[in-house]
Amino acid sequence: ARKEELETLRATLQKLQSQKPEPQPSPEIIKEVEEQRQANEKAVQEIERLTQVHFSYLQNTIFSCVTESPKSAPVAGLLECRKKDEGKLLKNLLHGDLALTLPPGLSASVLFLCLRQIDQTGDQPRTRSFCTAIVSKHSNDLDMTALWLKNGCLLHDLLAQHSSKQVRRTVILSDRHWYECTGHIAAMPALLESESLAGSAGKLPLSRKGASSDSRVVGGEAPSMDSLLRELRALYTAMSRQALPPELMEQAFHQLTYLMCASAFNSLLLRKDMCSWSRGMQIRYNVSLLEEWLRSRELSAGGAVATLEPLIQAVQLLQMGKKTEGDAKSMVQTCTALSSQQIVKILTLYTPHSDLDERVTLNFIRTVQGLLKNRSDSQAPQILMDVRQVFPVTFPCLPSPNLHADQLKIPDNLKISFLRRA
């Protein structure tokens, strides 16, 4: 059914090749696009600020897990690291290409045994210092981010098992990394402007590229669904390589698709050139490609596909009939993910670009407004979606068996032979 829908969209758009070119964007539209770009930049800055808070939280959590554990007899099977070797240990385990070749979770296992040995000495200042060094800022490289996320989760679980304190399982962690690794701002123009269908009649004028080139062109290329899906594949591969739990991957892509949807949806509501029947067909096809990619990797269960619904319904509205009272009723019944204000805004912006498009009359908009008054609106009375919304990440608790140094297979090329069994 999904393939049939895509083929239907392709066939329909190919019939529009003779359509007149779209008008050049007005200064008002260019100004609105620039304002949206600035709003996206502010959202990224907010994520950066939140991340610093979350790093501090993780440091305190790890430290409390270790220092608040009940005093017991010395535990055998730990690893001892001299203070002068701590920097070398962290570099080999968490930084550089060598770290990426290690079995998933090996770094966390080694660090846990070293951390627990330090704690047994009663040297709390050194324990805190070592914890801080573990979670200090690292490379924003995508593969290294996945490596850190995997080992951070496992280390948290190992420490929580040996703590008398009930550690909170829900924290907001690494949202910034998901933001940075997939380039979600670049995804917004790709969803709206990528000419994925041959013969698309709704092509945008080339002069528009200069309106906000820094957020619309990646590596000198026009925004495309191919580049967007390539970025998503890279993130998925990096997380899979580290054997991250499926629940965590679902949450990551849920957050990402929401940010992509919110950015694209807001841009659509600020640009009249996007509100036409033909452009709606192209956007729907682009979103279908994203949906198909998410489902093929079993990422839809975490809400990644469902969060695209506002954008899907917005383009459905662009494609629906807009003449009769029956059309108005169908529109109100279909667009349940859109607020009344959003529906009216899209109808107001609707701009015919060919003979196939229908002009929206003021009487039709008033009819829709009358029907919306009688609708029990479950959506907040807002125009734009919140691009700053960050969902809390629930880390699955994965109990591990008692860990012993003899169980670890540490490769020689890791060069940490300075560790001693304790």
| SS summary, helix count | 17
Mean pLDDT over the full residue set: 76
Largest β-sheet summary: 2 strands, antiparallel
Count of spatially separate domains: 2
Q: What share of residues is helical?
A: 55-70%
User: What gap, in angstroms, lies between the N and C termini?
Assistant: 61 Å
Radius of gyration: 26 Å
Number of strands: 4
Beta-strand content = under 5%
Globular, elongated, flat, extended or rod-shaped: what is the shape? elongated
Structural class: mainly alpha
Any overview of this molecule?
InterPro entries: Dilute_dom, Vascular_dev_regulator. This is Dilute domain-containing protein. The chain is built from 17 helices and four strands. The chain is an all-alpha fold. The strands form two sheets. It has a two-stranded antiparallel sheet. Strands 2-3 form a two-stranded antiparallel ribbon.
Can you summarize this structure?
The protein has 422 residues and is an all-alpha fold. It has helices at 2-14, 27-67, 86-94, 96-100, 106-120, 124-134, 142-161, 175-182, 184-193, 213-216, 225-241, 246-269, 277-296, 309-319, 325-334, 340-349, 362-373; strands at 79-80, 170-171, 393-394, 420-421. Helix 1 packs antiparallel against helix 13, helix 5 runs antiparallel to helix 6 and helix 7 (142-161) packs parallel to helix 11.
